[in-house]
Amino acid sequence: MGKILLQSVFHNNAECDILISGTTFSSVGKHLSPQDREGAEIIDCKGMAIFPAFYNAHTHAAMTLMRGYADDKPLFEWLNNYVWPLEAKLNADDIEIGSRLAVLEMIRTGTVFFADMYWHRERTMKVVEEMGIRAAIGVTISDKLTSPEGLEENFKFLKQHTGESERIQLVVMPHSIYTVSENCFKRSVEIAQKENYLLHTHLSETQQEVADCEKDYGCSPVELMQRFETLNSHFIAAHCVHLNENEKKLFAKSGASIVVNPCSNLKLGSGLPDIAGFHTHGISVALGTDGASSNNNLDMHEEMKIAALIGQLQAHNNGNVFPKETVLSLATEAGAKAYGIHAGKIAEGYLADCILVNKNDVQFTPCHDIVSNWIYSANTNTIDSVICNGKFVMKNHHIDGEDDILKEAQQRVKQILTR
Ligand SMILES: [Zn+2]
To answer: How much distance in Å is there from the Cα of 261 to the middle of ligand 1?
Structure first.
């Protein structure tokens, strides 16, 4: 079992030693015996602070290939006229290259987990295995965007649990209520229950989606999830921009999680999720970047700061505050928890996922409160190293193969556009 000793690292406003044994934190801030230290790789962390790594609870990794491709459009025009026609040209190799670019960006910005809803999932899984992070890989279900054969292949894949591993789980991901028919959605719910998968979908992202749902089903999107018998602790909904008070109560009662994606919602002009309100209702809320095509990056720190600012405004309007501990948890522990991963905290017994930041950076100076500096002052350039599952995936700013990944992505995008 490999051991890493993070010596003299700044944690909870004091210097301490942290021992990683295998894949978990085995000692945090305690005195270590010579036996504990035996065989450990010793990292001198003087001047470094440790934080939990980020968990990106909703994205579409390979859409990095479309970063900056079609800006300034509302959601449905953006999907119909730009994204879907370009996606139709993408093959499995493209998806692998786009996913690799995404994982590179995630590691560099301190993210060790992503929940991915996309196509050619085997290629994304391969990239995750190779690059050493974690993922919840979606088997994306849509009878309106997929051929009948493709759809059947997806359900078969789910029955076989293909490719699940220590760092990779599969999740049933019906794309949305506007791209999945009632029958197909119910079938997704059924297989998730039978095979014990989580179920993740886009929900209540735009006012149009809500209006169409009322017209087609005579109820709101959250009520529809209840009708489909999926509104429970195994359900994770992305966006939830347009929920009424009753829908928030239904969510709180059900134990289902919401993933907010404020950058994407702002950029596509969809509206803003009630981040502070969800919290007051006791709903479990995680954070995601959505795809790089509508964000336009996968930087969870930036997403965290924007979510924090929105949360502050909403909380202040109701005479409350949006505390920094809640903000940090939104971007870390809450995402891990939503996907059933015992991580997101620097504590004994938790999976050893963390980042080391340069505490001597100008953005951490002075240091009245390190969590405040991390959320509101610093950016991800202050990240020195990233550890996932007890192993370095970035060490002293170095990530294996970075130059090749960038070059390959640049060349591939040129080629796709000529098809
Ligand atoms: Zn999305």
So the answer is: 8
- The pLDDT of residue 72: 85
Name the band, by pLDDT with cuts 50, 70 and 90, for residue 205. very high
Distance between Cα 412 and ligand 1 center (Å): 23
Question: Which residues make Cβ contacts (< 8 Å) with residue 277, sequence separation at least 6?
Answer: 248, 314, 318
Q: Of 299, 282, 266, 380, whose CA–CA distance to 67 is shortest?
A: 299
Q: Which of 17-31, 76-90, 258-272, 361-375 has the lowest mean pLDDT?
A: 76-90
Partners of 266 in the β-ladder: none
Ligand 1 mean position to 239 CA, how many Å?
Answer: 8
Q: Model confidence at 195, in pLDDT bands (50, 70, 90)?
A: very high
Specify the CATH architecture of the domain 3-52+346-402: Roll (2.30)
Give pLDDT, residue 185.
98
Domain ranges for the chain, please list them.
3-52+346-402, 54-338
CA–centroid distance, residue 265 to ligand 1 (Å): 10
Task: Considering only CA atoms, give the Rg of the chain.
Answer: 21
Q: Which CATH number, 3.40.630.30, 3.20.20.140, 2.60.120.1440, 2.30.30.60, labels domain 54-338?
A: 3.20.20.140
Tally the residues of the chain.
Answer: 419
* Beta bridge pairs of residue 322: none
Model confidence at 78, pLDDT cuts 50, 70, 90, reads confident
